[in-house]
């Protein structure tokens, strides 16, 4: 009963539509992507950009893990939560999605206005001249350089970032930019880097034009999300939280409502009410 009342109250916030939405890893767990910080997730240290740039052995492990992980990711697709948010935007109930995820699932679900705070893992760029390629292209080059490697390691454990935990990478050859020969890296924000200013400003603009902010599947352990919450607080708009497990703002008076449940199931139920 309490859950139903909370859903009705959440639906009531949409009277102030459009609302802004901030999503985190919790919305993608139902698509089979593990969560770094969710309940039961093993402790892991995020990759730093200094490790990636300064340690060739680290880059070998990274690309080997990315290639093997791609075998498992082939079946990953947007779930009911992603699809519901795309329909909310199409109906004018939200003004788009701000996401901390790099999995590209919001775009694949049909969301048109997507602000990717931490970039997009399906895009690879070179560090010298910003030449850009798709992840599939670069992984194809990995296969050409390391024939049979992916097949030999297809049973490796998959980490929360979607890549595999592989060993025996000392002889791995890493792909480089075919245009200039420089290091290739995913177009994402790693530990030790900052969200690009224009990206954050676009996210701010969505919050500034919204009648409320809904936080979905995020524990708000990342400072960028907290900054957006502050912008909403300064405007005095309602803030709702949908997350399985605690978040960094649960005790704040500015939180209008809190639903402790899975993102996809809650958004499905919310959509039924809003129809």
Automatic annotation (TrEMBL):
Residue span, Deacetylase sirtuin-type domain: 1-275
Keywords attached to this entry: NAD, Transferase
Keyword Metal-binding: no
PROSITE patterns: SIRTUIN
InterPro entries: DHS-like_NAD/FAD-binding_dom, NAD-dep_sirtuin_deacylases, Sirtuin, Sirtuin_cat_small_dom_sf, Ssirtuin_cat_dom
Gene3D superfamilies hit by this protein: SIR2/SIRT2 'Small Domain (3.30.1600.10), TPP-binding domain (3.40.50.1220)
Matches recorded under Pfam families: SIR2
EC id: 2.3.1.286
Organism taxonomic ancestry: Bacteria, Bacillati, Actinomycetota, Actinomycetes, Micrococcales
Protein name, entry field: protein acetyllysine N-acetyltransferase
């Amino acid at each position: 009963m309490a859950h139903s009342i909370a859903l009705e109250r959440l639906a009531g916030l949409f009277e102030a539509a459009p609302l802004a939405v901030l999503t985190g890893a919790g919305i993608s767990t139902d698509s089979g992507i593990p969560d770094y910080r969710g309940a039961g997730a093993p402790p892991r240290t995020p990759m730093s950009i200094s490790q990636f740039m300064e340690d060739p052995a680290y880059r070998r492990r990274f690309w080997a893990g990315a290639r093997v992980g791609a075998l498992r990711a082939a079946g990953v697709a947007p779930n009911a939560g992603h699809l519901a948010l795309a329909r909310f935007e199409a109906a004018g109930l939200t003004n788009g999605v701000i996401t901390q995820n790099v999995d590209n699932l919001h775009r694949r679900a049909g969301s048109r206005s997507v602000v990717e705070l931490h970039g997009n893992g399906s895009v690879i760029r070179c560090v010298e001249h910003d030449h850009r390629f798709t992840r599939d292209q670069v992984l194809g080059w990995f296969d050409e350089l390391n024939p049979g490697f992916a097949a030999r390691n297809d049973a490796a454990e998959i980490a929360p970032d979607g890549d595999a935990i592989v060993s025996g990478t000392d002889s791995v050859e890493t792909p480089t930019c075919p245009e200039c020969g420089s290091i290739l890296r995913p177009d994402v924000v790693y530990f030790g880097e900052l969200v690009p200013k224009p990206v954050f400003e676009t996210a701010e603009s969505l919050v500034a034009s919204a009648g409320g902010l809904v936080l979905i599947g995020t524990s708000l352990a990342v400072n960028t999300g907290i900054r957006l919450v502050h912008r909403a607080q300064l405007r005095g708009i309602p803030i709702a939280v949908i997350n399985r497990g605690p978040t960094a703002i649960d005790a704040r008076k500015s939180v209008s409502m809190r639903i402790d449940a899975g993102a996809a199931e809650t958004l499905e139920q919310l959509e039924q009410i809003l129809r």
